């Protein structure tokens, strides 16, 4: 049975968890099919046609609600929405029900003590706690993370892996829309990489930042060759050039190239980040809603990265709830990041699952107004895209 603890604030009385899949927009699917159905060099076999998610709603005894959202993809997270929900349903729920959301640190300690790993499931609950805290306090959640440092955030645009000319065309389109940072997918071959970057830099000019993402495409020796070949084109960062589990390989590459490396697929826990830092394997870490496991871990990861002189990129392809969370996280830590954030879900998916869309405009996004994340779940959309029944767990 859940253990009640005396804490300031109303206690949590119910959890609702829903698995769902939201298809990509047709134009996104068409672009991805030009590169084998994935739009990137990751060696996965199945076409990527949409995003799989778990949505969590927690409710307290006063009727306040908090929302969490986790994106999952088998080639990266190694879990499905139903598995995440099962971890909550069979174990993690008991450390949340009966608690005040303001006990979030103790809740996390108890989850860690009793359930190994499962950072994505823990992060789903943690995210909902932070939304609920904002609702209870009637404040935007960024103000509970140390205070809002900015009202508007610069965004980075994404160009999937295609032929060089098509990628340069799309990059120029993003620039004309107001984006000043572009992420280009690479990894088919060193020769192709060079041509993609050459054309993009030539057409974008010197004032647009270019970052690249290899999606684990190369062995360490190949990655060194590939990155050195594009160094003359002023590359902001190179994301995950080698396998996510190859921390030593990342260190090998970073010691031999000038471009800062960023780990994303390899940052699923605080321990992963600590190891990457200790090995001097990266100069930038990638953080999102599920990596390294919710808001509480993300705040610790940002603090740790900053103390070691590392930059941070907050990014993922999520729906409106997680987008809002990452905007609040970035707004509260703006001075520590050093790089534009990446939020691609609003461009990729046919629905964002929130009532009022976030204010994306001209390569920028505003911090949502209102308490918590400042967004409201669209229950009709939730029902439309659900891939299974909503699991309800009550105190």
Structure description:
- The protein has 395 residues and is α/β, with parallel strands linked by helices.
- It has two domains: 12-139 and 378-394, Enolase-like, N-terminal domain (Enolase-like, domain 1, 2-Layer Sandwich), CATH 3.30.390; 144-366, TIM Barrel.
- It contains 15 helices and 15 strands.
- It has helices at 26-33, 74-77, 81-90, 104-114, 119-137, 164-177, 190-204, 220-230, 247-254, 270-278, 294-307, 320-332, 334-337, 345-348, 379-385, and strands at 12-23, 50-60, 65-72, 152-154, 156-159, 181-185, 209-213, 235-239, 261-263, 284-287, 311-316, 342-343, 360-361, 364-366, 391-394.
- The chain has an eight-stranded parallel beta sheet.
Order of strands across the widest beta sheet?
5-6-7-8-9-10-11-12
What percent of the residues sit in helical stretches (DSSP H or I)?
A: 25-40%
- Give the name of the CATH architecture of the largest domain: Alpha-Beta Barrel
User: Judging from the principal axes of the Cα atoms, what is the shape?
Assistant: globular
Considering the protein shown, what is the CATH homologous superfamily of the largest domain? Enolase-like C-terminal domain
Order of helices and strands: EHEEHHHHEEHEHEHEHEHEHEHHEHEEHE
Number of separate strands:
15
Topology:
Blueprint lengths: L11 E12 L2 H8 L16 E11 L4 E8 L1 H4 L3 H10 L13 H11 L4 H19 L14 E3 L1 E4 L4 H14 L3 E5 L4 H15 L4 E5 L6 H11 L4 E5 L7 H8 L6 E3 L6 H9 L5 E4 L6 H14 L3 E6 L3 H13 L1 H4 L4 E2 L1 H4 L11 E2 L2 E3 L12 H7 L5 E4 L1
Parallel strand pairs: 5-6, 6-7, 7-8, 8-9, 9-10, 10-11, 11-12
Antiparallel strand pairs: 1-2, 1-15, 2-3, 4-14, 13-14
Helix pairs in contact: 3-5, 5-11, 6-7, 7-8, 8-9, 10-11
């Amino acid at each position: 049975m859940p253990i009640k603890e005396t804490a300031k604030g109303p206690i949590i009385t119910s959890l609702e968890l829903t698995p769902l899949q939201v298809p990509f927009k047709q134009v996104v699917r068409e672009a991805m099919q030009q590169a084998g159905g994935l739009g990137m060099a990751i060696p996965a076999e199945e076409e990527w046609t949409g995003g799989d998610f778990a949505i969590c709603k927690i409710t307290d005894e006063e009727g306040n609600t908090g929302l969490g959202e986790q994106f999952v993809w088998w080639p990266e997270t190694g879990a499905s929405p139903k598995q995440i929900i099962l971890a909550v349903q069979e174990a993690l729920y008991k450390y949340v029900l009966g608690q005040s959301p303001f006990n979030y640190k103790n809740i996390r300690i108890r989850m860690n003590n009793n359930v190994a790993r499962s950072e994505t499931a823990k992060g789903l609950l943690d995210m909902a706690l932070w939304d609920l805290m904002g609702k209870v306090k009637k404040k935007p959640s960024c103000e509970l993370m140390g205070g809002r440092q900015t009202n508007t955030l610069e965004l980075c645009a994404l160009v999937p892996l295609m032929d060089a000319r098509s990628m340069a065309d799309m990059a120029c389109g993003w620039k004309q829309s107001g984006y000043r940072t572009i992420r280009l997918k690479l990894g088919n071959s060193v020769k192709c990489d060079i041509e993609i970057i050459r054309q993009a830099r030539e057409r974008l000019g010197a004032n647009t930042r270019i970052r690249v993402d290899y999606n684990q495409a190369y062995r360490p020796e190949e990655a060194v060759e590939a990155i050195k070949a594009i160094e003359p084109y002023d590359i902001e960062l190179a994301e995950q050039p080698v396998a996510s589990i190859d921390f030593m390989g990342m260190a090998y590459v970073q010691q031999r190239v000038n471009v800062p490396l960023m780990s994303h697929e390899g940052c699923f826990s605080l321990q992963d980040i600590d190891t990457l830092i200790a090995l001097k394997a990266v100069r930038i870490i990638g953080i999102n809603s599920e990596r390294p496991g919710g808001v509480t871990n993300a705040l610790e990861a940002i603090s740790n990265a900053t103390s070691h002189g590392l930059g941070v990129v907050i990014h993922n392809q999520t729906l409106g709830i997680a987008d809002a969370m990452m905007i609040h996280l970035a707004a509260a830590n703006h001075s520590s990041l050093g790089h534009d954030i990446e939020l691609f879900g609003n461009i990729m998916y046919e629905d964002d699952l929130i009532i009022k869309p976030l204010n994306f405009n001209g390569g920028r996004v505003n911090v949502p107004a209102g308490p918590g994340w400042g967004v409201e779940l669209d229950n009709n959309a939730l029902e439309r895209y659900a891939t299974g029944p909503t699991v309800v767990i009550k105190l």
